[in-house]
TrEMBL record:
It comes from Actinopolyspora saharensis. It catalyses: 2-C-methyl-D-erythritol 4-phosphate + NADP(+) = 1-deoxy-D-xylulose 5-phosphate + NADPH + H(+). The gene is dxr. GO terms for molecular function: 1-deoxy-D-xylulose-5-phosphate reductoisomerase activity; isomerase activity; manganese ion binding; NADPH binding. It is an enzyme of class 1 (oxidoreductase). Catalyzes the NADPH-dependent rearrangement and reduction of 1-deoxy-D-xylulose-5-phosphate (DXP) to 2-C-methyl-D-erythritol 4-phosphate (MEP). Residues 24-163 form the 1-deoxy-D-xylulose 5-phosphate reductoisomerase N-terminal domain. HAMAP family: DXP_reductoisom. Residues 175-258 form the 1-deoxy-D-xylulose 5-phosphate reductoisomerase C-terminal domain. This is 1-deoxy-D-xylulose 5-phosphate reductoisomerase. 1-deoxy-D-xylulose 5-phosphate binds at K156, S180, E181, S205, H228, S241, N246, K247, E250. Residues 291-408 form the DXP reductoisomerase C-terminal domain.
Amino acid sequence: MSTMVSAQPGKDRQENDRGSPCGVTLLGSTGSIGTQALEVIRRNPGAFRVLGIAAGGNDPATLAAQALEFEVEAVAVARGTAVEDVQLALYAEAQRLGYAEGRFRLPRLFAGPDAATELVRDTEADVVLNGMDGSRGLRPTLAALESGSRLALANKESLIAGGPLVQRAAAPGQITPVDSEHSALAQCLRAGDADEVQRLVLTASGGPFRGYSEEELHEVTVDQALAHPTWSMGTVVTINSATMVNKSLELIEAHLLFGVDYDRIDVVVHPQSIVHSMVTYADGATMAQASPPDMRLPIALGLGWPRRVDGGTPRLDFAQASSWTFEPLDDAAFPAVGLARHAGKEGGCLPAVYNAANEEAVAAFVAGNSRFTSIVQTVERVLAEADAWRAEPASVDEIFESEEWARSRARELAGMERAH
Ligand SMILES: NC(=O)C1=CN([C@@H]2O[C@H](COP(=O)(O)OP(=O)(O)OC[C@H]3O[C@@H](n4cnc5c(N)ncnc54)[C@H](OP(=O)(O)O)[C@@H]3O)[C@@H](O)[C@H]2O)C=CC1
Ligand SMILES: CC(=O)[C@@H](O)[C@H](O)COP(=O)(O)O
Ligand SMILES: [Mn+2]
């Protein structure tokens, strides 16, 4: 088992044991992961220093408030048109806080589609937490690895799309998973040696449609799909949980992070989302990581790795009666995981194609242009036509080419559905 994740940090700049605060650059700071990461940092004064923050540009006021509260050195916004709004918001926030003239120093500003990548290079943080959504996180992920920062990775799509390129760029131990299942696996893997690992077991909540038949799934609405039973998250990952595409991406993520064959990674439905994943060892022992469903735990561990940091997650209360249940996944109603197992085994750009087709199909569903069941059907159809993308990608550009093909094919399929 070869792994990019290990119990000890691997590069010099990750070994911030000097008592100085750990420098953090946070991508996606206004989102679900980003705001919870800032909560964790707020809760641990003196432990972390936020050097840079990045967002898409939907919420300039929040971005500006974060910049001033954490006195960041640099801010990045993806939408170039948002940069003026961010500047205005920074001045307005400074005024609101009563900053005297001259006390307020404007952070360095980066704008445009590569702003997050430029921010990563500029800030040279000890830890880059990638909490952006979508495979647009790939270049920032690679930039973090190339600049020698430790990468706390929530943005699973960048690993899935980048596959071997991300693996090659990462030194041993340079990536710490933040996704709850993979954080759990990393914790369980501390209990034994790599050659003693028999199986990884990924838990899935089952989403809002657990127990639905294929026919029932045909009629579900966007609001129903967004009502996740156990987690409060951003739109795309929430829809992905409902289709089981999230677990599909997590299957590929687990293979890439921990180097375990697909045939030795199981998915089991666990509706309570308390056991976050498990590792079975050669002697039959299964280690599980359990805690209430609260992302602040894996985020805090991602920031502090290999040390545990109190992120404010409540403890399990064994004085209360409760039950933890496990059931098999219904592969007929939720074929996404089987498709991902196939795409992952084939490799090449197929995982990138899978993810890109899904991102487009989710956008079409959320916009009201297609049915819920069309999401995975679209992924399946695009994959079936993707023979040209089976080879190992030689460059990031090649990955983005495969994605562009998949996105445009997925959009065509959504358009055809709309026309009917
Ligand atoms: N939320 C969760 O609990 C979990 C999330 N994850 C993963 O973490 C990632 C983030 O998820 P989540 O926080 O829920 O998503 P959200 O939609 O809540 O947040 C996404 C964030 O990314 C920002 N963003 C979008 N485009 C860019 C860009 N080009 N450059 C910089 N920032 C950008 C958004 O800013 P803006 O709104 O301005 O565009 C926003 O701040 C996803 O990969 C998800 O799968 C994994 C496990 C759990
Ligand atoms: C919190 C987290 O890590 C999400 O990725 C979560 O796994 C979503 O829940 P599902 O198990 O329903 O996909
Ligand atoms: Mn997860």
